[in-house]
Amino acid sequence: MSTLFNFWHYLALFISLLIFIGGVVLAFQEEGFIYRIQVIFAFILISIFVAVFSIYAIDVYTKEAKLYKLESKRILSTEKIMFTGVVKNEGSYEIGEVVLEIKLVNRGDAVGSVKTGEFFKQGSLLDYFSYSNLHRDVKPQQITQESVVAKNLKPGETRDFAIYLDYPPYFSGVSHFPKIYAH
């Protein structure tokens, strides 16, 4: 859910409350107890759906964060990779949390387009059921981690960050794919 509400969030919640109240008034104008309960339940579901959907949509369009100067550096002594960069609030409203998701992909075993993150390794059905495949150690070829890089970011404000990810020793090269989310 959202960590910070602005004017538009409160307006959307007020509109969903009006929908609920209108539904309750409409339900009490009808005869029959069962019918009233059904109408009230339907309007409860509708108002909850409108509230959740509108809060999500308002978050997407009012909270804009951008990522600048993302650099990575591998630290061999601790087998970690460090990402540093800057996040900036490009929107007109305060952002509660900025989350950076980084996907590390092993380039040594990938066949296909590493730039887009599409991978295909050719194999057959018999390879899947072979004895060596059943007893080998499965090593993930991609790792995804989310980290909060900024909290309570005001409009136009920037923050520096540094995060550390474990670097698997069996990776022969790495491609990284960052995504940023503002909540």
Q: From the alpha-carbon coordinates, what is the Rg to the nearest angstrom?
A: 25 Å
Number of helices: 4
Please tell me the overall pLDDT: 81
Largest sheet features: 3 strands, antiparallel
Q: Could you explain the architecture of this structure?
A:
The protein is an alpha+beta fold. The protein has helices at about 5-30, 35-60, 125-130, 130-135, and strands at about 65-75, 80-90, 95-105, 110-115, 120, 140-155, 160-165, 175-180. The strands form three sheets. The protein has a three-stranded antiparallel β-sheet with strand order 1-2-7, with no helix packed on it. Strands 6-3-8 form a three-stranded antiparallel β-sheet, with no helix packed on it. The model has no long low-confidence stretch (mean pLDDT about 80).
Give descriptors for this structure.
alpha+beta; 3-stranded antiparallel sheet; 183 residues
Put the structure in a nutshell.
The protein is 33% helix and 37% strand. The protein is of the alpha+beta class and 183 residues long. A hairpin with a 4-residue loop joins β4 and β5.
Sequence-ordered SSE layout with sheet pairings:
Blueprint: H1 7-28, H2 33-62, E1 65-75, E2 80-89, E3 95-106, E4 112-113, E5 118-119, H3 125-129, H4 131-134, E6 142-153, E7 158-166, E8 174-182
Helix pairs in contact: 1-2
